């Protein structure tokens, strides 16, 4: 039995292209396949008795993605596919290395697979991938990935901010709440305005920190110098008014030369760099051991 995976992620193509590609049940017709879809990746895992069949499957997805105007993607087979599944679960393939959210997303994809196909061959792979992800987080020292994103965003904001800049925060969910909390501590004299599509959540967040809140109006954001956004279902709007936009939305809410995204924030983060190397080294050692253990059971030949 040989495992395979086709991966479309931030590692091999622009994120905007990933958002354009929507793998359907038709694309997966006739396959015992598990789909993992997150903010920064679409992946399909499958298995076959022969490499020839795997490459036929790869060709199917290559044609489907080309029809959507997508160029790129990565095809992995055998040991490389197994190792990739373990690395994804460990957060090594994420923009925020070691993030916790991905492990929950892998568990959710596994649950969906079992509900549809039962406890088949791919279930064995993903039971082990989840176990490896838990083990790595248990046995290595690493700050919570969400905290790294929040703190890195505040770090980026500090580089952009000038005295008297007007600041707007777009959204009222967990990400914006985490950033507002850290902004309140690091910049107590700055009073950003909270813009949100949910007036109830915006009011709750704004009242907690003594801030003003308004219903989201894209045009009003042009009156602000710095905009920090984290919303779902962004439409890729161009804003020319702000000198800088930090957009953590999925898909991207704002486009343009004045916009920075999660990958830009993390690539320039001193917080991401500190301690990450040790985490990666420890995680990769554990993964190498677990891949050999998994293959020794005859799960993949």
From TrEMBL:
GO terms for molecular function: glutamyl-tRNA reductase activity; NADP binding. InterPro entries: 4pyrrol_synth_GluRdtase_N, GluRdtase_N_sf. One of its GO terms (biological process) is protoporphyrinogen IX biosynthetic process from glutamate. Residues 30-140 form the Glutamyl-tRNA reductase N-terminal domain. PANTHER family: GLUTAMYL-TRNA REDUCTASE (PTHR43013:SF1). This is Glutamyl-tRNA reductase. It comes from Candidatus Parvarchaeum acidophilus ARMAN-5. The lineage of its organism: Archaea, Candidatus Parvarchaeota, Candidatus Parvarchaeum.
């Amino acid at each position: 039995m040989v495992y395979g995976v086709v991966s479309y992620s931030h590692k091999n193509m622009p994120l905007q292209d990933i958002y354009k590609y929507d793998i359907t049940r038709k694309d997966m017709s006739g396959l015992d396949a598990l789909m993992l879809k997150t903010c920064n990746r679409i992946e399909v895992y499958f298995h076959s008795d022969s490499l020839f069949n795997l490459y036929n499957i790869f060709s199917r997805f290559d044609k489907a993605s080309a029809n959507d105007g997508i160029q790129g993607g990565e095809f992995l087979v055998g040991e490389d596919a197994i190792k990739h599944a373990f690395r994804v679960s460990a957060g090594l393939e994420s923009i925020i290395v070691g993030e916790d959210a991905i492990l929950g997303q892998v568990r959710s994809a596994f649950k969906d697979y079992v509900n549809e196909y039962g406890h088949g061959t791919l279930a064995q792979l993903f039971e082990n991938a989840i176990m490896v992800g838990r083990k790595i987080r248990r046995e290595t020292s690493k700050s919570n990935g969400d905290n790294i994103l929040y703190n890195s965003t505040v770090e980026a904001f500090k580089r952009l901010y000038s005295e008297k800049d007007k600041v707007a925060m777009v959204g009222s969910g967990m990400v914006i709440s985490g950033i507002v909390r850290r902004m309140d501590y690091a910049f107590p004299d700055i009073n950003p305005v909270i813009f949100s599509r949910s007036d109830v959540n915006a009011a709750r967040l704004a009242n907690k920190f003594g801030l003003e809140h308004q219903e989201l109006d894209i045009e009003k954001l042009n009156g602000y110098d710095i905009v920090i956004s984290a919303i779902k279902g962004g439409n890729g709007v161009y804003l020319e008014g702000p000198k800088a936009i930090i957009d953590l939305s999925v898909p991207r809410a704002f486009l343009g030369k004045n916009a920075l995204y999660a990958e830009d924030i993390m690539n320039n983060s001193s917080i991401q760099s500190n301690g990450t190397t040790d985490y990666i080294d420890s995680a990769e050692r554990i993964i190498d051991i677990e891949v050999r253990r998994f293959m020794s059971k005859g799960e993949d030949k």
